[in-house]
Amino acid sequence: MTRHIVATVEDIPAGHRQRVMLNGRPIVIFNLAGEFYGLFDRCPHQGARLSDGHLTGLLEAASPGDYRYSRQGEILRCPWHAWEFDIRTGKSYCDPARVRTRAYPVTVAAGAALVEGPYQAETLRVSVEQDYVVVDI
Fold this sequence. Notes:
The chain is an all-beta fold. It has a single domain, classed as Rieske [2Fe-2S] iron-sulphur domain (Rieske Iron-sulfur Protein). The protein has one helix at residues 111-114, and strands at 3-8, 17-22, 25-32, 35-40, 54-63, 66-77, 84-86, 103-104, 106-110, 131-136. It has a 4-stranded antiparallel sheet, with no helix packed on it. It has a 3-stranded antiparallel sheet with strand order 1-10-9. A 3-stranded antiparallel sheet has the order 5-6-7, with no helix packed on it. The N and C termini lie close together (6 Å).
């Protein structure tokens, strides 16, 4: 699995997203209250860019007339035909057993940890003061 540094944490504020290309793959990175998630940026239905989709929540009903709105900002609606996907898993709410968009593991790593490696070389003093968003593909 190859790791790719795609942004600093500050580049993707909570509630926002950023589209990146990694090895020719379009991936959209979401920040949900400080937790980062990555999805393949194509709807499996007809290929729309999910990064252009609307963020919404989940409307559930235990019985008729008993509605509950939850997970605000965690459900992504395709801009073309309104298919909905769970940002955390990539599963579709249209047909969760069969339809999904690929989810990619995303982590946050301290900049100082990213510059360390197994090799010894002549070094210069470098200061890394930010955390970075990293995608594994």
